[in-house]
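Task 17 of the worksheet. Students: predict the tertiary structure of the chain below and write it out as structure tokens. Keep your answer in the requested format; marks are given for formatting as well as content.
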Amino acid sequence: MTPERALAELRAGNARFVAGQPKVRHPLADVHASAPGQYPYAVVLSCIDSRQPVELVLDQGIGDIFCARVAGNVLDDDVLGSMEFGCKVAGARLIAVIGHSNCGAIKGAIDHVELGNLTGLLGKIKPAVDEIPADGQPRTSKNHDFVDHVAEANVRLVMKQIRERSPVLREMLDQGRIGLAGGLYELETGKVHFFDN
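Model answer:
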């Protein structure tokens, strides 16, 4: 499995999901087959949103991918350490960061929501909000285009942070041993739009 093949597998899985033609799976057999060891080919960081169940929308089965889910698909040391385990120890060949349209965490960051521990989480999204240039359009959560532009900027920010904050993953990326991809899941259609770069 190469990084390029891993991304192609995720793309193909999402295409099957959107077409309503998922692979026929036998979950209990997969449970038994994967019990002795796991060999996932990708690590996926996505939002906690209940409308974006990653294994389903990418048509992946038990043992196929590692999944980390947190509101706004933000990065912290625990998620980063999990990615290092997934790639360096368990052999995953791709890290994919997948945000989604109409994201509540993105809206919260845009609207400066403050609520307990959520305040700090939303603060991690603020640089992505600031990244989007003012173009005369309302910079509020009611502007769906703005929300989705911030969501994309946030995915790109997290991708940059992965490279900057993990020497382990940066070395693997530089050597071509793993790949790093980003995308946005469209809630209305089920399609993941992977970025070209």
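Marker's comment: Strands lie at 42-46, 65-69, 94-100, 179-185, 192-194. The longest helix spans residues 144-165.
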